[in-house]
Amino acid sequence: MTRNERILLLAQKDEASRREALKNILEAEGLKYTIQEEAGSYKNPLGVQNYLLEIGISNQDPSLLFSAHYDAVPGSTGANDNTASVCILIELALEFTRQGIPARFAFFDGEENKLAGSKFYVNQIDRSLITGAINLDLCGFGDAMTIYSHGKKPGSIMALEPFMRKELLELYHGQLVSYLPKSDDYSLSSAKIPALGISVMPRTDVAFLKALATYDNGILGKPPEYAMMIDQMEISTTMHGGYRDDPKWLDDETMDFVYQYLLKAASTKPEKVKKRFGLF
Fold first, then answer.
1. Domain 3-276: CATH architecture, name and number where available
2. What's the pTM?
3. Within 10 A of 58 (CB to CB), how many other CB atoms are there?
4. What is the model's pLDDT at position 276?
5. Where are the domains of the chain?
């Protein structure tokens, strides 16, 4: 199955159809999964269905987690938010299988409903089995890959160090930033799992991130200025029913460099990085 075929199957406005499409794709690709399910409630009538994969893991070995949400806001195709990221991780899982690289993958439901899927996930798992988490959101449009490291100083978590090497970021148009809008990496970080959030956007949008951080820290929640600034960002046209919220606007080159960056970083042993940078 090609990337474009996966995108067209997943980028649907109906939530139940998206769930079924993800299931069908994983099965067609031979990727074994389990479903982590929470029944519907008055707060979340559709409930939660997270799709979880373990690649090359035995005896409950600790590993990295790669995640992306597959749900979309009502009426949206979810093309860039977040079908592109899901398809990147499916390709990564297939390549990890071929190369024997151990990792966990989670395709979260309910991100658009106050991070319901990832919050449920962290409450159900043994968190000691996750050495670090890399969450993708909005990774199919733009030319600047932004990486937000939660909590500790970037590079201080050994398992995540390979993803923040300067030469790798330069090669794949990446830069560390001090803020990204909330996605599932916030749930992971809140559960004391070292986490990175990764998004791609046009370079002109990156300048907005510092200002957005100040608006997101208010005691009374986000002021109207926060939403106004988000609306000024070009990336907003690719999500939540914007005029670029369509698979035709997804950029293969953008998805390629995110995929290659993840594969290159995941193939690097953290111990080698530490020795190279004199961290021992």
1. 3-Layer(aba) Sandwich (3.40)
2. 0.93
3. 7
4. 40
5. 3-276
